[in-house]
Specification:
Mean pLDDT: 77
Number of strands: 24
Helix content: 40-55%
Strand order of the largest sheet: 3-2-6-7-1-8
Number of helices: 28
Radius of gyration: 42 Å
Oligomer: single chain
Shape: elongated
């Protein structure tokens, strides 16, 4: 088994752990007891203490089911108004807000009311699972998308509410609720499933013994397939493989085979546990609505979809099968023209080692099936008639000047003109009309289909054969040209966008260029919008409504497409595609995008996302370079911080020289002021030098704390004495809530911390205001608060003030000093295993600097316990 397969399986298992778990109660038909079994399971979980919330349960008036809802929490439903009618639906936002452990959501395939966030209830369930909520739900087997055609063939009833099979495949648990068909019919007759009038109608339509038996078989097959899928995933995660050579299924989708063939291919891939892909080779340069629907369904069912353009369909399919390593081809039953070989015959001639399966996906009727020509073909046929009519008129007008042998060339030109402007069928029609027109107008007897001359008869047949051959060749060249033009258009758009995005300098420029490229490629207005609903591209003014805002929010939160012509909030005016968690690209569509346009859109979006990621990466790199440059500058500043020492030295030198020069001629008051100045500046110089020494010691790799037993009261008193001269205008209020124990710390370092913080508090507090020092025992920590009523510190700066060299014009760090004091204080406290941080003082005034020291690391008792705990 390949490592990447095992990795994918392991990643899938890990992804499921972060999501909620889905438990599906599967039944063959209504009335088998799915809701009853689901509620029983929910009640069992509730008795075990699990938080259960009923999101929506449809009891259909069944009393035994209604009784199970007793003592279970039920979320009220949300009311939607649609065409003057009140429709009650599950409150998805209420469930997400409440966030229970398990949400009970009945009828998984239900279609929500118009205007809901999601079109289908299974999409609501997926959002609940993404939010980490487990979900219990119910499902009837006929609602699976891949079984839609098979159920119609078996029962004659077309089920309208369907959901992708991938939803069931991703379920963590599947419980099959089985009931024999005869017992279900008895329940129906007794009125336990529907009311009597509905029960009689059901007995005569859907609920027949044959239908229920067939549906029961489908339900069992589906459950068995789910078990096999789980087993395969577990074996892959364990590095084992049950089918090492299982191959790949390739569904070959033609113009006349639509969603039915895709559904059959999905069922076949499930049964055989094969990876599968859907391939369509466009040989006509156009696609029908049915084909577009089939391609969209294939992508929805999880297939890899490839659309190619080539007139040689068989060769292209064989090349694709070889490239994709397909082992089995699935095709619809061909509608072969009697004069040419079918596609299947071409494939059988070229296939080597491939299994080819044919499926009749047409309607099962007794009579022949009449296919209507598409509207585009009708218009092209009318154009062919017009061209040949004009050609006949020109030939009639020139018949008097040109020889009779030259007139057929004019009709050949008409057929070529038709083939170059239309497709193959109108070209053949033009050849037939040219044959008839030349016979009627220019071959004796005139205005009659009779031909007397053998040479004229030969001319007519040559004209017919040349016209058909030339028309077919010209039509094929035109189709190739259309395909090449589409490919070139996509390549040109991608190249042009890539070149423009490579030179973009900011997100706004990327968004503007990307919106313009998508608008040109799709011929639809495009714009970029952020999570605040602001236009970021400057392309078109757009104010989203409430539905569009909801679509934008959901698209950004889930990183999936939402809005118009999607399955989520499709009532929005625009379609939204996420680019980043904060940016989305919107497109105002007049109609759904074709498969090729959707492919082109996704390619362009990929380039835009890559450009935005590149710019974000460049910004991060620039920030990293800036940070590195800042660190280098800080290191240089630290080496040259001696400049900051010149100010106190200059003051000391000036005062000393004055005292020496003037001596006794200076008055006593002036002498005292000079001496006080010398003392203050000496203390300031000592503080700078002490900070530098402390930073050098703490930053060294061999730094160790020299612990000793000290009294916190002695440390506070010593710090106050060191600051005595600068505290003349402040009072220090000391409060001990209770006597603190002796501390086993580095006394000098802790004293320096107190000096630094108290010095900051004294500098930036108004004169005459007190500064409070409070000590509290809050096990397991000792808390020290230094509180002032100064100018305070802005909330955005409370973390920055502990950075090296950070100063601010106002606040506790101020503009004086080197910006080292608080950085050193934090390093000293963290060396003791503690923390230091700042917050607003009482009533939001001033600042409180809090120091927290763990007692287990900084007291004798804590040290003794640690020594005893050591082995």
């Amino acid at each position: 088994m390949r490592d990447e397969q095992r990795a994918d399986a392991l990643l899938a298992s890990l992804a499921e752990e972060s999501k909620g778990r889905l438990k599906v109660f599967l039944g063959a038909a209504p009335g088998v007891g799915k809701t009853y079994a689901m509620l029983q399971a929910a009640r069992e979980q509730a008795r075990e203490g699990t938080d259960i919330l009923i999101g929506v349960v449809e009891t259909h008036g069944r009393q035994e089911t209604l009784a199970l809802l007793d003592q279970l929490a039920i979320l009220p439903r949300k009311t939607h108004l649609h065409r003057q009618q009140r429709l009650d639906e599950m409150d998805l936002d209420g469930l997400l807000t409440r966030k229970p452990a398990i949400a009970v959501v009945d009828e998984l395939a239900h279609s929500n009311a118009p205007g809901s966030r999601h079109e289908k209830r299974w999409q609501d369930v997926q959002e609940l699972l993404d939010a980490g909520i487990d979900v219990y739900t119910t499902l009837n087997v006929q609602h699976l998308e891949s079984l839609n055609d098979l159920v119609w063939q078996l029962t004659g009833v077309r089920v309208r509410e369907t959901l992708p099979d991938s939803v069931l495949l991703e379920a963590d648990s599947l419980v099959l609720i089985d009931l024999p068909p005869r017992e279900l019919l008895d329940r129906l007759r007794e009125g336990k499933v529907y009311v009597p009038q509905q029960a009689m109608a059901a007995l005569h339509s859907f609920f027949s013994l044959n239908n229920l038996t067939a549906l029961r078989e489908l339900a069992m097959q589906t459950a068995a397939s789910h078990v096999e899928g789980d087993l395969q995933l577990q074996w892959q995660a364990a590095g084992k493989s049950t089918q090492p050579l299982r191959g790949k299924l390739m569904v070959c989708l033609g113009e006349q085979h639509g969603p039915a063939l895709v559904r059959h291919g999905h069922r076949l891939a499930q049964r055989r546990q094969l990876p599968w892909l859907v391939v369509h080779v466009d040989s006509r340069g156009q696609r029908s609505a049915e084909l577009e629907q089939a391609l969209a369904l294939a992508a929805q069912l999880g297939a890899k979809v490839l659309t190619l353009s080539s007139p040689a369909v068989a060769d292209t399919l064989m090349e694709t099968a070889a490239q994709q390593q397909a082992s089995q081809l699935l095709l619809g039953k061909p509608h072969k023209a009697p004069w040419r070989r079918s596609l299947v015959q071409h494939l059988l001639q070229r296939a080597r080692g491939l299994e080819i399966t044919l499926v009749d996906t047409g309607p099962h009727h007794g009579g022949p099936v009449l296919r209507e020509a598409p509207p585009g073909q009708i218009g092209q046929c009318l154009l062919a008639v017009a061209i040949m009519a004009i050609t006949s008129a020109i030939a009639w007008g020139l018949s008097h000047w040109l020889p009779a042998a030259s007139l057929p060339l004019l009709f050949v030109l008409g057929v070529l003109a038709t083939a170059l402007t239309t497709s193959q069928l109108p070209a053949i029609l033009a050849a037939i009309l040219g044959f008839l027109a030349h016979n009627l107008l220019f071959t004796a007897p005139y205005f009659s289909l009779t031909v007397h001359s053998h040479s004229d008869l030969l001319t007519l047949f040559v004209l017919f054969i040349v016209g058909i051959a030339a028309g077919r060749l010209a039509s094929r060249q035109r189709q190739q040209l259309i395909g090449l033009r589409e490919t070139q258009q996509l390549g040109t758009a991608l190249l042009s966008l890539s070149q423009e995005l490579a030179s973009a300098n900011g997100p706004e420029e990327v968004l503007r260029q990307g919106a313009q490229a998508i608008s040109l490629a799709l011929a639809q207005p495009a714009f970029a919008i952020d999570n605040l609903y602001q236009d970021r591209a400057g392309t078109i003014p757009y104010l989203p409504g409430q539905t569009d805002k909801a679509a934008i929010d959901w698209s950004l939160s889930q990183q999936q497409s939402a809005g118009a012509y999607t399955a989520t909030l499709n009532a929005a005016e625009a379609q939204y595609h996420p680019l980043t968690p904060e940016l989305a690209l919107g497109i105002r569509l007049a109609q759904p995008l074709s498969a090729s346009a959707e492919h082109q859109l996704q390619a362009l979006l990929t380039d835009i996302r890559a450009a935005l990621a590149r710019i974000e990466l460049n910004e991060r790199l620039a920030q990293s370079q800036l940070q590195a440059e800042t660190d280098r500058m800080r290191a240089a500043l630290l080496s040259s911080v001696s400049h900051d020492l010149k100010t106190p030295l200059a003051a000391i030198m000036g005062a000393g020289s004055t005292l020496l020069e003037y001596g006794d001629r200076i008055g006593q008051q002036d002498r005292d002021e000079l001496l006080h100045s010398v003392q203050e500046e000496a203390q300031r110089l000592h503080s700078y030098v002490q900070n530098l020494l402390d930073m050098t010691r703490i930053g060294s790799p061999d730094f160790q704390l020299k612990r000793d037993w000290v009294s916190l009261a002695d440390l506070v008193e010593s710090a106050r004495r060191r600051l005595d001269t600068s505290w003349r205008q402040h009072a220090l209020l000391i409060h001990f809530d209770q006597t603190p124990p002796l501390l086993y710390v580095h006394g000098a370092l802790l004293e320096q911390v107190l000096v630094n913080i108290l010095d900051n508090a004294s500098r930036y507090s108004p004169a005459g205001t007190p500064i409070e020092f409070r000590v509290m025992l809050a096990e397991p920590d000792l808390i020290m608060d230094i509180i002032d009523i100064g100018v305070g510190i802005a909330a955005a700066d409370r973390d920055k003030i502990f950075n090296l060299f950070y100063t601010q014009p106002v606040g506790d760090s101020g503009s004086r000093g080197t910006g080292l004091g608080l950085a050193i204080s934090r390093a000293m406290i963290e060396a003791h295993g503690g923390r230091i941080w700042a917050f607003a003082g009482p009533n939001g005034n001033g600042t409180c600097m809090r120091i927290s020291l763990p007692l287990a690391l900084n007291t004798p008792d804590g040290q003794a316990e640690m020594e005893m705990a050591r082995p």
